[in-house]
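Archive maintenance. Older records in this collection stored only the sequence; we are now back-filling the structure field for every entry so that each record is complete. The fields below show one back-filled record exactly as it appears after the update. Entries are processed alphabetically, and Replication restart protein PriA is next in the queue.

ARCHIVE ENTRY
Title: Replication restart protein PriA
Organism field: Acidimangrovimonas pyrenivorans
Length field: 735
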Amino acid sequence: MSGAGLFGQAEFEAGQRVGVLTTQPLDRVLDYRAPEGGCSTGDFVEVPLGPRRVLGVVWGPGEGSFDAARLRPVHRVLDAPPMRDELRSFIARAADYTLTPLPAMLRLATRAPGLGDNPAMRHVYRLAGGEPDRMTDARARTIAAMREHGGLAFTLGELSHLAGVSTSVIKGLVKQGVIVEEEAPRDLPYPHLDPELPGRELTADQAAASESLRQGVAAGRYGTTLLKGVTGSGKTEVYLEAVAECLKKGRQALVLLPEIALTAGFLARVEDRFGARPAEWHSGVTQTERRRLWRMVGQGGAQLVVGARSALFLPFRDLGLIVVDEEHDTSYKQEDGVLYNARDMAVLRASLASAQVILASATPSLETWANAEAGKYRRLDLASRFGASELPEMRAIDMREAGLPANRWISPELQKAVRARLQAKEQALLFLNRRGYAPVTICRACGHQIACEHCDARMVEHRFLKRLVCHQCGETKPMPEACPSCGVEGKLAPVGPGVERLGEEVTELFPEARVAVLSSDLFGSARALKAQIEAIAEGAADIIIGTQLVAKGHNFPLLTLVGVIDADLGLQGSDLRAAERTFQLMRQVAGRAGRAERPGEALLQTWQPEHPVIRAILSGDEEGFWRAEAAEREAAGMPPYGRMAGIVLSSPNLQEAFDFGNELARRDAPLRAIGAQLFGPAPAPIARIRGRHRVRLLVKAAKGAALQPALARWLAQLKPPANLRLSVDIDPQSF
Ligand code: ADP
Ligand code: ZN
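Back-filled structure field:
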């Protein structure tokens, strides 16, 4: 464990023993001798490890018993702002909470390149404009890649990687003046955001909510508030006032958004409100920009950061507010590497930083709803949409009575509604949460279904890419002529619809309409997707076909009809969160309709209109739905009324994974000691990914149980075999 109690500032004189946490996959803090000139806790340092030098942070006084004089010395202290106690405590507590080794957690906080001075980053490259004397393919690619990323500054290595060209191509363009080489902008502050600029005039509801949030921020203490309001009720407008208050106090604010594609509109709104754009942090931002942001955040030269979940690990100088927008969004849960939920980590970080948290959503997660019910979070409601716009009227279409022929998915009633929109020059959205052309490809000669060789998953036909794609591992292959099982040719057939196939039906039914298919895989880059979304908002399409990408926050003023092709889709399977997810997704999608002056309508195609979840969605009785759902979870002792952890064991060898799981199950005394129950080992929900078999154990404990320490004691009893990977998922998304 990490010793979260260690924190506090300490100075070490040359030669004293210090504990250094490195980002190397070791399980503990290592002891070194403080360098000439000494060092302090939080300093970024380079230390020798075997034959190499690695990055680390001075974590505290060393704890080993080795004579300090015989320890290896810290090589040097890097020129970077030291890591504050608050961030070190956060890393330690987050590691304890998620049962992640400290070094892996530290890696999340040191993702900025060029800590200290990295010679490769002293110069950056910027697009100057103009044309080279001769335009080669490689040169064109380089220029295009720079444009795509906003013509910002790049390092040589990064640019050659982005454009897929050799560095000599770039140097050639520098010689010609098309690209300029500059000193790296290391300490360039972001433009000043002015919180004194006037905001919009708020409605009475909005003003009350914003005043309450403002007071929370002004008090300078920790607190979490659920800001609940239907899409379009002005949540963003309201929390921007809390951001303004935070900036007035001279503290920094962080806004987390679930999708990069959403940030375009959001950045513009911030600019409207505060006169300048905020700093951005996500995977689409260049390394040079990241380094700049990382340094500026530490020095206070970035007042507001808009980012993806990893922005939670930035070294803020004085963080006063974290907004988690669309807090229910599943993308806040990191499902790779370190498994953490950004919503929960935001609350943890804020509590350590004496900051406020605002969780904004139209359809909060059950966890957040329950925390508000229990009085742990405050709750503010915005009851109505801003201005004249009304919530859409929602209705079910009973598919049992639709009488559709095979391979047709749009009922006559929905067709009629779409046609009416086309005539009125309004937009219609058809929602189907399935990427690709068809989810299944079957051989009509032998019944074989094409599956991924490496995963327990079917290959999905993507006609646009002309390939079969595995949605688990990303493997693709061309569509075969003959069945891979029986060898008969010309018998492979698609089964079921994906958005691409739905697109074909729409084009047949409405040949005169302009159709846009919005699915993440159809766009080469986030920028291209953003452009498409903006074009649609301005009316460039009549019918939009989309996956859950479109459910999130986009504002399409001309959209007045939402048709859900298969409202039952998310209700299949055994996931206990299925009801919650479907409820959220359907309400979100429906919320896309009728955002401007025109009223909207949402039609849900379903085979089971009596299903309680479908009925709850239609009735709009949200509190009733949450109460029923909460009662069910409480009765079953499930989160948030009980605690759970999933342990996934993955190995190329299924037997090995099961054997290890059974060994663990036999040694469950530490779990029994806290009254926890153990289930499994059993095949994980996806039993094989990338050639690795996956076996899962589930641990269930009472709400107040000290789950993590018990898990740590339990797992420490056995060392996994070399081939086996063990990952712990606290509060798993599916159970
Ligand atoms: P939400 O975040 O709840 O979806 P937004 O804050 O995006 O809602 O508001 C929806 C739309 O209504 C936006 O276009 C916003 O600019 C506008 N709006 C909301 N409140 C006001 C207000 N008080 N004055 C002017 N426009 C507003
Ligand atoms: Zn696969």
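Update note: Confidence is low (pLDDT under 50) at residues 1-5. The longest strand covers residues 677-689.
Entry marked complete.
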